Amino acid sequence: MIPIRGLAHINLNVRDIERSTSFYREMFGLELLHDYEGPMGNHPWGRQVALSTPGAADILALSQVPGEPIGPGGCNHFGFILVTDDDLEQAIADAERLGGRLVRRDSVEVDSLVERFAYIEDPDGYIFELNAQRVLLARKR
User: Fold this and answer.
1) Which domains are seen in the chain, by residue range?
2) Could you report the per-residue pLDDT of 21-63, keeping only the tens digit for each?
3) Most CB contacts within 10 A, which of 34, 57, 105, 110?
C-alpha cells in the first residue's frame, strides 16, 4: 500500500467553463485556486479552472477543451458532504436555481441511522450526491 493524503482532484470536461465555474462556486462556496488558459496535453488550447472547498485540500478541476467528450461517460457520480441533513432541502433548491436538476432523493437506514440524500445533475450532465454522511460521522465517535 502506498500512503496517500487523500484524493487529489476530480476533473470534469465542461461545455461552458464560465457557467460551470459559477454553478460550483455558488452551489458550494468553492474558492478559485487557479485559472489557466493555453496548451493542455495534446491540445493546442484549453482552459482549466481549479476550485477548492474553503479550508480543505480537495480540488475540483473544470476543463473546457475543444473536441474532448463532455458528460458523465463512465463516471456514475461524485459526492459532497453536507454539514447536516437539515441542509439537504436548501441545497436541492440552490442546485435547481443555479441550473441543476434533481434526479432522485431518498433516505436509507444504516446502523440505526437514517441518512437522507439527493442526486443532482449539473448543467453538463454530471451527477453529484448530497449527503451528510451521518453513518461515517457516527462511527468516528
Assistant:
1) 1-67 (3.10.180.10), 71-141 (3.10.180.10)
2) 999 999 999 999 999 999 887 888 999 999 999 988 889 999 9
3) 105
